[in-house]
Structure formats: structure tokens, C-alpha cells
Amino acid sequence: MSGTSQDSSRAFHGRKQKRIDVGLTLTVRGTDKHGVPFADSVHTTNISRTGASFHLRREVTVGMNLELEFAPRPGRAEEEFTMSARIVRAERDTFDGSFHLGVQFSRRFLRVYVPESGS
After folding, report:
1. What is the pLDDT of residue 8?
2. Which helix (H) or strand (E) holds 11?
3. Closest to 36 (Cα-Cα) out of 69, 59, 56
4. Average pLDDT over the chain, rounded to whole?
């Protein structure tokens, strides 16, 4: 994998739900492969009702559970919320060494995101 977003998106084919390319801010909490607890702020690369993908600089493995805390979007009357997710894909990015993760939510993601248009 060369580390480009095009290569990353090809690696995550075979989805059951349509994903939307959106950079939502979230805090990822968990324990890394070495047993060290962490809480890191990341941005999603895409999201669906059943899962999401993002890059994390921690070494984690498929099957691990994470807590995801979604921040409210700027200018919206939303509250942050937390949900559990299980790592279903973890691929090391050869460009920067981070891990490109695919996670499956413990329940359906109910917020609706519509791309904003400048026109």
C-alpha cells in the first residue's frame, strides 16, 4: 500500500453500507497492542451507518474494542456522543507508519450527513 487515499479506499472494498467521505472529529479511547491505554483525537476519512475508517498512530490489532467519542459539528445544535466499535481492519500506512483502521460500530450510526454545496 503506497499510503495514498486512492489506495486506501481500494483496500476497504466489499462494504455492506455506503460510506460518505467526511472528516468528523472524534476521540478514540482504547488500549494499544502493548497494553498502554490511550485517548487520541482523529478525523474520520469516511463513515457509514455501521462503521467508519480513520488513521491512528497507535499499534492496534483486528478484534480490539475501542470507544469513539464524536464531537459536535461546528454551528450545529448537537451534543457529543460515545459508542463502542470493534476493529475489523488494521493496515499500516507505509508513508507515515500510522494504522488505517476500519471499525464496526456496536449500534447503527443515526446522524445523517449530507455534503454541503457552495451553490
Report:
1. 41
2. helix 5-11
3. 59
4. 80
- Per the model's pLDDT, the better-predicted residue between 89 and 72 turns out to be 89
Q: 71 pLDDT band (50/70/90 cuts)?
A: confident
Rg from Cα positions in the chain: 14
pLDDT above 50: residue 88:
yes
User: In the chain, count of helices (H) and strands (E)?
Assistant: 1, 6
**3-class SS of residue 4:** coil
Sorted by where each begins, the domain ranges of the chain are 5-105
The structural architecture, per CATH, of the domain 5-105 is: Beta Barrel (2.40)
The DSSP code for 119 is -
Contact 85, 51 (CB under 8 A): yes
Residues 75 and 113: their CA atoms lie apart, in Å, by: 14
Phi-psi region of 98 (alpha: psi -120 to 50; beta: other; left: phi over 0): beta
